[in-house]
Structures are given as C-alpha cells and as structure tokens.
Amino acid sequence: xxxxxxLKRLLVSLKTPKKWRxxxxxxxxxxxxxxxxxxxxxxxxKRLGINEKGTLWSYLRLVDLPEEIKQxxxxxxxxxxxxxxxxxxxxxxxxxxxxxxxxxxxxKSDELKGIVQALKKRNPNMxxxxxxxxxxxxxxxxxxxxxxxxxxxxxxxAVLSRKSNETGIPVQELVKRTLTEVLxxxxxxxxxxxGQLVFLTLNAEDYKNLVSAxxxxxxxxxxxxxxxxxxxxxxLNLDKLKSKISIEGDxxxxxxxxxxxxxxxxxxxxxxxxxxxxxxxHTEQFESALSLCSSILMTKETKSLLVAEKGGYLNLRxxxxxxxxxxxxxxxxxxxxxxxxxxxxxxxxxxIVNGDGDRILYTGDFNYPSxxxxxxxxxxxxxxxxxxxxxxxxxxxxxxxxxxxIVKTTIEKHKSVSVIAHPGKIQFLMSRLRSAxxxxxxxxxxxxxxxxxxxxxxxxxxxxVFEMRTPDALTVEKSGNPHVHFYxxxxxxxxxxxxxxxxxxxxxxxxxxxxxxxxxxxxxSDHADINGLTAYITRSGAKLVIIDRSRCELAETFARHxxxxxxxxxxxxxxxx
Length: 577
Known about the structure:
The protein is built from 23 helices and 23 strands.
C-alpha cells in the first residue's frame, strides 16, 4: 500500500497542471497500480476523482512499458500521451523502435497516431521500421527562409557611427564584420541597413547557426546583432547596470537583480527567488521566499538537501522549481540559467540575461579552478578568502590524501577520530573515506545523517551512519572499537580522547599542521583563494564586479584590490553607512 506522504503527492499530481506535479507519469502509474492491486478500479477512480476508463486506464497501461522507455518518460523526453500510444497494438520491439523515432525525429502527435494506429492497422505485414520511414517521407518538404528585422540600439549605433567616421568603413560593413563568425557569405550578402534597422534573409542553415550562437551566449535572438555590434569597443553603461543591482541586509542579505529577482534571499514584490546552494548563510530567508515568491529556483540536489534539512512538506510546495544545469528559465524579459559551481552538492552559479542583453552573473560560493568560468558583463561574487595572504600552495587532492592517511593510521592504532567540518564537507569526507575502504562506523548529528542519505541518493557513498545519542550510536561508542565522529564547525566536542581533525581553511596559517598532539588542522576549503577569485574576474571579461559584503567582512578590501590592480570597476554591497 501507499504511505500517507506518497498518497498526498499522488493526489497533488493528479489535480494540478503538469509543470507543478510532484510525481512524474511513471510514478503516478505505479502508484495507481499499487492501489488497484488492493481495491477495485472503480473505487480507486471514484476516491481519486478521476475517470476509470480514461485517466486511470491510460496511466495503468504505462506500467507495462519497457524500462528504458519508462526512463525517457520519467525524464520528460517522452510525454504521457505519446507513451500511452506506444501501448496500443505494438509489441516490445516495436515500442522501442517507435520510442527511438520519437526522440530522434521529434514525431508530432498526428505522425505518432499514424504509425501506431492507422498505418499499422492498414498494413499489418509492414515492418515498424518501414512504417516509420513511410511516415517521415510523407512530411512536407519545404525550403525554409527566415526574414529577420531587428534594431541596433541608440548607444550601439552612436559607437558604430563614431568608428565609421574614424575609419571610413560604412556602418553596414561594420555590422557585417561582427557577424562573419556566425553567418555564411550568402547570409551576410543579404544584410541591409536602413537607419538603425537591420534586415536579413537567411536559409535554414544560417538561421540555425544564428540561433545557436545566440543561445550559446545566452542572448535573445532579437538582441543578438546589437550585442555583437557593440562587442569590444562598446563601453557598457556602468551607471545603468549599477542601478539594477543591490544587496539588502547587513548579514546574509538578498542579492537583488533587476525588478524581479532575489538570489539567496527574498523581498516583497520580487516574484523570483533563486537558491545557489543549501548552506545556512544562503538559505536564511528561505521561509520568507516560500511565502513571498511565486517561483523559487534551485537544482534538484539543493531541493533534496533542503527537504532533508527542513522537512518533507517542501515536496508539496508548488513554488519550488528545480532546474537542470544549463536549462533556461524565462520570466518576462529575463532569461535565467543555473550553471555549475564547485562548492557542495547542488551548488550553482546564476546567469541572468535581461531585456537589454546585459549578462549578470552571481557566482554564489565557489572553488577554483574546478568551477567553470562564465563570460559576463557584471559579476557578483563572494570573497571569503579575498585577502592577500590567502594563497594556497597545496592542491585539494593532496590534502584529502593526508586526511585519509591520518584517519587510517589512527584507526590502525585502535583509536577513534573526531572530524570537525562544515555541512557538505562532512558528507564529502565521508564519501572519500568510504572510497578509501575505511569501513568503521560513522556517527553524526541528525541533520548531517539526513544530508548523508541525500549524498548517497546522488551516487556519493557514505555508507552506514548512526545518529549520535541513539541506542545504536551508544552501542558503537561503548564497544571500544574505532569509529569516526563528524561534528559541524563550531560544535562543542566532548572530552573523549579521540584524535581530532579540523578540516577548514578558516583561520588556518598552514596547509596542514598540529597545534598539539592528537589534534590536526587541514586547510581544505571549498572556496577560491585570492588567486582563484582574481583569475575568475579577469577571465570572465566582467566590466563591473560587485563583492557581497553581507557574507564577507573583507569585501571592501578585495574590491579595492581588484580596482587598483586590474583597472576594473569594483565595489562592495551593501554600502557602509
């Protein structure tokens, strides 16, 4: 039978629009099958408020699909209606062939219906491959031409006109030159300029290349030619960009971007909140966001950690929206993309491209060089280690190896270990110890145990972890056998004679050292040092850099360093009063 929590999720999924459903179609189908195994179908349909011979029947048919097709449905690559059609008159081999065709050729609904029903029924001796081929041949063959009319903005046109006067090259030719990397010669030859209006007539291939280039740079197609034309010589209007960004709150503040967005925070009148990762200093305003925001964007890993930290009720919240890395989300004239960040499980950078084509990137917390650099106009970043004497001369892997060696050596001496680290780092260290064949019991507080279970869910093995002060944990402690305790940074540790290892670069003056016997400090950090921070800034091409003072006391010092050393506009927010 279904548990109460799963039954609630099923009801929500059956009664809400597809984008807000808590279950995918296969999970809905399997849940309905479980209910129908225990109760008559008519009763199940009546209790759930669905049609027995319509909705219920179509879902139950999905249960018998091959597992690989079910997985495509779970991932949203094949819709429920298309999956249902695969269950009509097709054997397993034919189902797989048609599913492959759906993915490869993006079959339309009427084409799929023709394959599965009409053609197959009328031609029972025809192979499914021939049926698919015949359907594809029946598609209308047309020669595509795309006419594009767009405008070069006033500021861009002024710069181009000035350059044209200086060089004697017509403005139209200057615009063509900016497009040579994207369009073929025939595409460029069609370009005409009438005042500030640009006219282009492109074949399918040129149009595809133009769209692809715009997507790659995350710029709207209608803004793309203007953005390329101002590339290089065009000086950004920094005052205009500065006015679009603020940080509200002296501690753990909300990063406010444009009119609609609050990153790692919330504010009345801002419908979109974006959570960069699950650490407490970036989710301080999460409960406020639940009430104030119509959509809270995050990665699926971050949502899983928040559910573990705050409770399963979050699975029922319709305004929690998970995005895959690289997936684009549009709100009014803003395009939002979550991009990889190396910090903890689920961490992301946030790229926002506004209606003017300005690229604004919020890094959240990140490490370097494991975090990919994103090209941007405005860079909003952390600077936890943005001071001059914070330069790391040891790479992360060598420090992890030292950590594992200390733990193993201690266990071989039949002694236990206490590890002090931040959440996320704790689960990462658990996983690395398990990968190094450290199989002694692990003990942690309840929240870190729940986080460890999430890490397991995403293929980072933490093994068996016992919650401290439970009967199982007490049995481990009383056994006298070696084990490893994990404590969050700042916890008060008991005087238990364990070898202690503090894994954090905070306040560390060497990569690894012993303040006294049986106590080690390993400066392993998931934040970039000052060299990593400045490398990101210079390689991102940012014209304006904003340092988050609400989470970094030295933000002003680092901003001044960036401005003086690299000549880049930089300042810290919020401003000191």
